[in-house]
Amino acid sequence: MYRSNTCGELRLADAGKTVTLAGWVQKARKLGGMTFIDLRDRYGITQLVTEEDPGVGREWVIQVTGQVVERQSKNPKMPTGDIEVKIEKVNILNKAQTPPFTIEEVSDGGEDLRAKYRYLDLRRAPLQRALALRHRLAQEIRTYLDGQGFMEIETPYLIKSTPEGARDFVVPSRMNPGTFYALPQSPQTFKQLLMVAGYDRYFQIVRCFRDEDLRADRQPEFTQIDCEMSFVEQEDVLNTFEGMMRQMFKNAVGVEIANPIPRMSWYDAMDNYGSDKPDIRFGMEIHEVSELVKGCGFSVFDGSEYIGAIAAPGCAEYTRKQIDELTEWVKRPQVGAKGLVYIKFNADGTVKSSIDKFYTPEQVKAVAEAAGAKEGDLVLILCGPKRKTQTQLGVLRIEMGNRLGFRDPSVFAPLWIVDFPLLEWSEEDQRFYAMHHPFTAPKPEHEQWFYSDKKEDLERVCANAYDFVLNGTELGGGSIRIHDAQMQSRMFDVLGISKEDAEYKFGFIINAFKFGAPPHGGLAFGFDRVCALFGGQETIRDYIAFPKNNQGRDVMIDSPSKIDQVQMDELFLASTVKE
Fold this sequence. Notes:
Blueprint: E1 18-31, E2 34-41, E3 44-50, E4 61-70, E5 83-94, H1 111-116, H2 118-121, H3 125-147, E6 151-152, E7 170-172, E8 180-182, H4 188-196, E9 201-209, E10 221-230, H5 234-253, E11 263-265, H6 266-273, E12 287-288, H7 290-293, H8 299-302, E13 306-312, H9 320-330, E14 341-345, E15 351-353, H10 361-370, E16 377-384, H11 386-403, E17 414-418, E18 423-426, E19 431-434, H12 447-450, H13 455-460, E20 465-470, E21 473-480, H14 485-494, H15 499-513, E22 520-526, H16 527-534, H17 565-570
Parallel strand pairs: 3-5, 6-9, 11-17
Antiparallel strand pairs: 1-2, 1-4, 2-3, 4-5, 7-8, 9-10, 10-22, 12-13, 13-16, 14-15, 14-16, 17-20, 18-19, 20-21, 21-22
Helix pairs in contact: 3-5, 3-16, 6-11, 14-15
């Protein structure tokens, strides 16, 4: 062994011991006649001291032997800050070029540079903590699910393309010219087949692939905690995975969460928060004020289907410049509002509004109070089509929550969202789409509407589905599945999928249902997102060892890249991209 101890484990009780350490030189500095070296490995940093200059540089890999002694000038910020190792012998294992950025808690390297040298960035303590948390969470998941009788079963990565949601990544088959595999967007159909096969509790921590536009919390390849159970109803699934989340919070990050976790219908979430993944760490709920403001001569309100408002606490002192900036903010394409109406509910009880000439002070004050405002608050009002306006208010609510410091990453507020609509109607395509996916069952009490031919009846059907939301982020979702071949065929009919198309894409699972499929359901959590939120971050990249950038590229290995003509010919491919 190159070392007797790691760089993070020595304490004052070890004083007097002769130890051997190995790691990377964080920094070396001379003070008087002494040289001090910070030696780092993934476990921590130990200070070394010697009267001779060993001539080592940053990121050199060295091995040292010496005696543990008590430090005269202790560092309470370091776990090893009470001791240092007095060097007796230095062995240089590998020299290193000067790194392109500092390997420190806070680096001087930009995001692109650190991505190019990801293997160096991974030496930094923040990323080491992130991957250590990911490891701990994975162990907690496996321990909990094993204790609940789940089996970890792997499903294929090379499957059939069934493009219904995001684009598939496709893989050409050399042995079957002109045909392609797809990389799975999720193991959905396979886990249902495992239920048909009698494996009543399945899980895996599995890679999934979606060829879609990226952002901070999306990657083209990502990891799911994928689970399925037989002979269960919605309540069984929710109770099982509430237990898993409580154990993960308690054992991985030392946090106790609500028991039971609160539940909210999709309709209440949209009406009150403008989002199907509401952040309930703070209030500022949406209130409809349509009846109070319509019919008073303000044409913008009179011609709107819906008028909604939120009250921003303590913001009545906003200047005109601040309100104008906020107005421009809601007009951005990401929000899409046409304008913003405001009411200042001043500390003295008076009101000032951008619509004063259309309403009396008493009417304006009534609107402010209906929005939940108190003296000193600022009321922000949007109008338009109901769901679109609620969504815009939801985005504005989150923005104000950020500006006012209400979204504390150390506070965790989990929530189940239930009773989603089963179907979404597209005016553009004049057809229904599945809100979740085509294998989601309707709630049993809504089956009468599910088999109706009336559009208004189908729009009333709620899915037997549920999402797990944490701090405004959807961490996971699932449903009770359709297990009856007749109901599955009906779903395909409603979605406009022909029998021939359904047979081609999903024939294997339709046929499987004919051989005794049990009632079953499950869910999948986005593991990368779980790790990021548990770590108090919004971006998932630090919790993935080798992530892609926003263009789906790995700049470290320069991927994706072209392949040579020999490979193209072997795969029977021809490029249509002009050089």
